Write the structure tokens for this entry.
Amino acid sequence: MIEDESNSKSLMERQTTGEDRVRMAVRQLSEPRTANWIASEAGWSHEPTKRVLEQLVDDGILHRDESGTHTTYYPDYRRQAMQEAMRLRDSGHTVEELTDQLAEMKAQIRDWEDEFGVESPNQLRGTLADEALDADQEDRRREIAREWEHLQRRIKIVGFAIREWDFLAPTTEPAEASS
């Protein structure tokens, strides 16, 4: 299995440029990351990675944060959410299917609220201070808290896609240029 993974990675590296790999790594960001981290993920050196990142900042695709000890880069989360909503609209799912998915996600969160007697992922994390919990129970609560946060983000995106179903419909007409 490890051999297959290394073969597929080298195949990806042979069929893509370093810039392509940086762009792919950036699309996967869910939190701010340094240029070194992104370069490592892309399998490319630091300086050219940094040049690509700066181009993406100039193009409005990424944001740069220099407030910490290291400069980090993060995507425009609004753009990502809009693209994900469009992908959902274009995926072949019906609005009813997305509505069912939304209901399932919300039901899962309600189940966790009832099971643990908390109202948020951080409140669930706070229960880790309970000395009666064993390591498996702590691990399970941490994993549920991460999944809960993920579902909260998905609920917002799926809800937006449902609300804006007609607006997000693909169009075959080119946009008119304003004069």
Notes: Residues 79-163 form one domain.
